[in-house]
Amino acid sequence: xxxxxxxxxxxxxxxxxxxxxxxxxxxxxxxxxxxxxxxxxxxxxxxxxxxxxxxxxxxxxxxxxx
Amino acid sequence: xxxxxxxxxxxxxxxxxxxxxxxxxxxxxxxxxxxxxxxxxxxxxxxxxxxxxxxxxxxxxxxxxxxxxxxxxxxxxxxxxxxxxxxxxxxxxxxxxxxxxxxxxxxxxxxxxxxxxxxxxxxxxxxxxxxxxxxxxxxxxxxxxxxxxxxxxxxxxxxxxxxxxxxxxxxxxxxxxxxxxxxxxxxxxxxx
Lengths: 66, 192
Prior knowledge:
Organism (chain B): Natrarchaeobaculum aegyptiacum
Helix content of chain A: under 10%
Low-confidence stretches of chain B: none
Family (chain B): Belongs to the eukaryotic/archaeal PrmC-related family.
Mean pLDDT of chain B: 91
Number of domains of chain A: 1
Distance between the termini of chain A: 27 Å
Strand content of chain B: 25-35%
CATH architecture of chain B: 3-Layer(aba) Sandwich
Oligomer: heterodimer
Structural class of chain A: mainly beta
Number of helices of chain A: 1
GO molecular function, one term (chain B): S-adenosylmethionine-dependent methyltransferase activity
Mean pLDDT of chain A: 93
Low-confidence stretches of chain A: none
Keywords (chain B): Methyltransferase, S-adenosyl-L-methionine, Transferase
Domain Methyltransferase (chain B): 39-101
């Protein structure tokens, strides 16, 4: 994900703003490929997997149909 | 891409079909976007519709899907992706347009097969199990003069969807349609 995407990403639970923690960047530094997005209101954290932020609410995150 | 990955995609991710093309054509035709406009495609699947909008309009396009295989395929094709439930992780008033080709097939609960392809296709018993929550949630993330492009099928009931959209504060107009032997697909443009 591009870091500028943070402007429009919010916590799915309370719409709080998200802070990027422990970011890993790709070789040219343009994309965030790993790290965690943390809600500045409720503290819930959301992983960035292979450059894709997973902003499913925590109770949906484990849901994996066969 | 490895062959095994390709096989996973074919079984786990809805691939572009007539409905995808109809929606992409309609959005690219109707959208009057500037370079600083953001467009969201909900339930992007393969990323086909989002990719078309990104290629054919000046807007920056973000694509979301519940399905981890879908967001990976779409990102692999250069689409900016977020794994999300409908519009829940996006800021208020963020988007000039939101496009959605929802799961809309009415499905007997006895016949639900509980995999990613079923999630991509099934709209529950009335076909609107995903459309109704989407219509309730989407006004929050849409800019005041923004538009929603929603693909619906005659199998789902276009009039019922227009009525629900009205309850969510939208006026609706049909901007594209295509008839097949068993259904007619319509793209609705919703605005406030």
